Amino acid sequence: MKNKKKLIFANLKMNLNSNSLNKLIDDFLAKELSFEDVDVIFAPPVIYLNEIRKKNKNKNFMLAAQNVFYEDSGAYTGEISPLMLRDVGCEWVMIGHSERRIHTLETNEMINKKIISSSKHNLNIIFCVGESYEERRNGKTYEVISDQLKRGLRDINEKQLRNIVIGYEPVWVIGSGEAANLKDIDEVHTFIDKQLNIMYPESSIEPKIVYGGSVNNNNISDIMKIQNVDGVLVGNASLDTNKFCDIVITVGNLND
Ligand code: PEP
Questions:
Q1: Considering the domain boundaries, does residue 40 fall inside one?
Q2: Is residue 1 in some structural domain?
Q3: pLDDT tens, 85-142?
Q4: 169 catalytic residue (yes or no)
Q5: What share of the chain is helix, strand, coil (3-state, %, to 5)?
Q6: Would you say residue 62 lies in a domain?
Q7: Pocket of ligand 1 (CB under 6 A)
Q8: 57, 137, 199, 202: which has the fewest Cβ within 10 Å?
Q9: Which of 91, 99, 135, 169 is catalytic?
């Protein structure tokens, strides 16, 4: 069973600096948005997690890291562990984003280790999957996504699904300014839902599935009407407080 809470992730990527990020969060807080059925999760560059957490006195949002390493501590120069994320009050972690798969050559096996380790330390996980343009053009979308799901969730049991959300992000659509068409989103979300049922036939937990890829204040309403869309991942539009707040308001009002 899924609860009806919708999730809105702001993936700020490697953007902003201390001043501009603080301003973005201040502007967001000044709008005093609060919807019972919507959770907002900001994913700033990891170096700013702690200072942003301190601004969040009234728990208006949650925090996500954009990446994590799979060991708890040790000689892994430059890496950040799940324990460290917990230590600075970070509740969520994004794992498997296509930009990491492409630019840092993250494999399904590494992603799987990160999911296992983050789950062990009770982080909520948004596990990103999605096909490239070429894969879609060659009719490989379902094969690729099914493979990403199976390999990413290897050794993850039913109980651990409780803390996992799937993010469907068609790779070519990210940052393009134009979201995938509604029919494609609908079909892939339905496919992911079915795949998870096949992988976890005994599970009473159905992970939420959120869509990401050029979501903005104009297309959010149509995207959220799709049956298996439980929220969105917002990249570019999350850098503009007005657009991002419009998205949150639209989703908040859809639940009325
Ligand atoms: C993302 O990369 O997670 C994303 C959703 O980006 P954009 O909204 O800019 O397509």
A1: yes
A2: no
A3: 999 999 999 999 999 999 999 999 999 999 999 999 999 999 999 999 999 999 999 9
A4: yes
A5: 45, 15, 40
A6: yes
A7: 11, 169, 174-175, 212-215, 233-237
A8: 202
A9: 169
